Amino acid sequence: MNQVLCGRGYADQILGILNEAIANSTALWDYKPRTPAMMSSWFDAKEAGKFPVIGFVDAANKLLAFGTYGTFRAWPAYKYTVEHSLYVEASCRGKGLGSKMLAQIIAHAEEHGYHNLIGGIATENHVSIATHQKLGFEPCGTIRHAGYKFGKWIDLSFYQRLLAGPQNPIED
Fold first, then answer.
1. Whole-angstrom Cα distance, residue 109 to residue 80?
2. Class of domain 2-162
3. Domain spans of the chain?
4. pLDDT in tens, 143-172
5. Whole-structure pTM over 0.85, yes or no?
6. How far is CA 2 from CA 5, 107, 130, 139, in A?
7. What tens digit of pLDDT does each residue of 100-124 get?
């Protein structure tokens, strides 16, 4: 397994992972599959914000998992806080890739001077919650009935991990 920065060349594989999660889980709260045009816009936003898309690939360059982070809220005072997401290809779940990916997201965000890393997780997703807690995330709030999918209301729990950066925060 190798770590890569995923550019647009991985868009189809990322799209496949996301659409499987949309269809079969509450990891994504979309109802309909995403399209290639949506992926293009997604990559545009990542590039504009200088946000990474980190992946793990096998020897055949098949994407096994990916993670990213981006803007938490659009106002300037939130510039040191980012919200992350990570996804593991269905056949690779339960093998520790989520923890490895989250560790890479933490390291990248810390290296780039962020102070607060946020994860929004469906409260029913006990595996993701355990992974986050194992890597030092703490619960910081739950929004009850935040979403409706698969015929039921879903609570959204937020987890955060404070990072060391930045050394000299500024207001600008």
1. 10
2. alpha beta
3. 2-162
4. 999 999 999 999 999 999 999 989 899 998
5. yes
6. 10, 16, 25, 31
7. 999 999 999 999 999 999 999 999 9
